[in-house]
TrEMBL record:
Belongs to the LysR transcriptional regulatory family. InterPro entries: LysR-type_TF, LysR_HTH_N, LysR_subst-bd, WH-like_DNA-bd_sf, WH_DNA-bd_sf. It comes from Variovorax defluvii. Gene3D superfamilies: Periplasmic binding protein-like II, Winged helix-like DNA-binding domain superfamily/Winged helix DNA-binding domain. Keywords: DNA-binding, Transcription, Transcription regulation. Residues 6-63 form the HTH lysR-type domain. This is LysR family transcriptional regulator. PANTHER family: HTH-TYPE TRANSCRIPTIONAL REGULATOR LEUO-RELATED (PTHR30118), TRANSCRIPTIONAL REGULATORY PROTEIN (PTHR30118:SF15).
Length: 300
């Protein structure tokens, strides 16, 4: 690796790892994945021809070369922060601008009301625009500047994207009003029912489609709709089943008087996160927005 490839992000990773002596903690602190941290350290080891961090009985310890490098890298980062990143603090009370979000329509139903209410309390002149276009992936919209943040269980956002966990979710089966009056949903009843599904699904939400493909015979998927909320209107008039994320499914299903069941098959947990592109990582307005979103959208 040429010296010109020692970018600010790599140096920041090095500084955090050296001080925390723990890759997982450094990943959490920087909003990166642990593999991204490991890859950066591997590149630095190759470049400097030194192990940099070695495992001992006391945990990870820096080599003498690493300690020598840390002093110089921290000096460079201090200059960058002082000379290039000194910006006026963002004042939300008087700011007039629009922030754009990408999520599924189910995610927007659950999260955006909370966020809009928070903005109205502390930043009344800030507006919100939501995108739920499944034909443009979250990565594209964040890279192109079409969205400031993405909310969801997306699995294709790595590399130049930061992330922060908001909450975990599971799945439920919502039954149409004409569904037989059973108290539990077994595997045979699930397989015999007619199902309605959303297609296309965004990255990270394909486990339901895999379940349908593996467990249902041909013809049991009776209807495909373009978005999650269309499911609910269908269920008001039919005996169909749909399998959806639990938090918003239960909330909206309750409003419509729909019954919910635990799926008779195991489905992976949904890790709902907030994602953003690295070009916005140090922008004061976006730092403020992310802090507000993390505070208001976290759920137990």
């Amino acid at each position: 690796m040429h010296i010109s490839n020692l970018d600010i992000k790599t140096m920041t990773i090095f500084s955090n790892v050296m001080r925390l002596r723990n890759l997982s903690q450094a990943a959490s602190h920087l909003g990166l994945t642990q593999p991204a941290i490991s890859q950066a350290i591997t590149r630095l080891r190759k470049h400097f021809g030194d192990a940099l961090l070695v495992r001992t009985g006391r945990g990870m310890e820096p080599t003498p070369r690493a300690l020598e490098l840390l002093e110089g890298i921290d000096a460079v980062l201090a200059i960058v922060h002082e000379k290039l990143e000194s910006r006026a603090a963002f004042d939300p009370t008087g700011a007039r601008r629009t922030f754009t979000f990408y999520s599924t329509d189910f995610g927007a139903t659950l999260l955006l009301p909370r966020l809009v209410n928070a903005l109205r309390e502390v930043a009344p002149n800030i507006a919100v625009r939501a995108h739920t276009n499944n034909f443009k992936p979250a990565a594209h919209q964040l890279e192109a500047g079409e969205a400031d943040l993405a909310f969801g269980a997306f699995t294709d956002l790595g590399g130049t994207f930061y992330q922060q966990q908001l909450f975990r979710d599971h799945h439920v089966c919502l039954a149409g009003r004409l569904f037989p009056p059973v108290t539990t949903l077994g595997k045979s009843a699930f397989r015999a029912a007619s199902h309605v599904v959303v297609r296309p699904l965004p990255q990270g939400y394909h486990m339901v489609e895999e379940l349908m493909r593996n467990e249902l015979t041909s013809g049991r998927v009776a209807l495909e709709v373009p978005n999650f909320l269309s499911l609910l209107m269908v269920l008001r008039e039919t005996d169909m089943l749909c399998t959806v994320p639990a938090r918003v499914g239960l909330a909206v299903g309750k409003l419509l008087g729909l019954r919910s069941f635990t799926p008779p098959f195991s489905l992976p947990t949904l890790n709902i996160k907030m994602f953003w592109h690295e070009r916005l990582h140090r922008d004061p307005a976006h730092q403020w927005l992310r802090a507000l979103a993390a505070q208001r959208l976290r759920m137990s």
